[in-house]
Task: structure prediction
Amino acid sequence: MTAITASAVQSLRQRTGVSILECKKALEEAQGNEEKAIEFLRKRGIAQAAKKAARDQFEGSIFLMQEGSKASIILLKCETDFVARDDNFRKGGTELAQTLLTKGEAAATSFAEEVVPVLVQKLGENISVTEMHLIEGAIVGSYLHSNSKIGVVIALEGGTLDKARDVAMHAAAMSPAYVRPEEVTQEKVEKEKEIWREQLKKEGKPEAIFDKIMIGKEKKFREENALLKQPFVKDPSMTVEQYLADAKVTAYVRLAIS
Result:
């Protein structure tokens, strides 16, 4: 019998959405041939997802659950808003978030491997768990927008639950990608610098002062993308950092359908 590698199983699972166990069985039957394995799965009626896996997923929903100082947040994607609003899709996402919250990441991953293929079969769209996070902290605040398209979880050390919730709502509205300015990647900064250089050239600025100008632009760019340095939505006279005072952000996750 042909030895089936873990990477081969993972490749088939990504294409079909079928569980690891079923993928391994199919690959064993097909002696390692992925295309034949897909045929076996289709014949068994559990791999219609193979044709759908390459289709773009522009819609979906955020599922968020919180219990005390722990919260789970999941991004479940699909192709259309119609499916995102389907009761079966909502039920599957809710159960997945509950599993992550109460049983942890390993159990949630196993559950996803079973429930997602079922949803694909039932709803006829490419569906996948794009992200899942389990957040714990001394104080945890969360916010889920009414349309389930934006969800935020914040963990604080110090501060209050109200402050954590306020900052979560702020992040939902202002979409900071990072907590602190120094966390903005150099790669993103370099991409912006290319744009700034072109802008300065068009403005007729002398190249000798480009570097000096871009120091200020980089500082501003980093702060605009950092949660703590943004003007606080409820009171723009202060930054989020000033609003939090002595409280420290220990975890931050923002998921959105965009």
Notes: The radius of gyration is 23 Å. The mean pLDDT is 90. Strands lie at 59-67, 70-78, 128-136, 139-144, 150-157, 231-232, 235-239, 248-256. The longest helix spans residues 105-123.
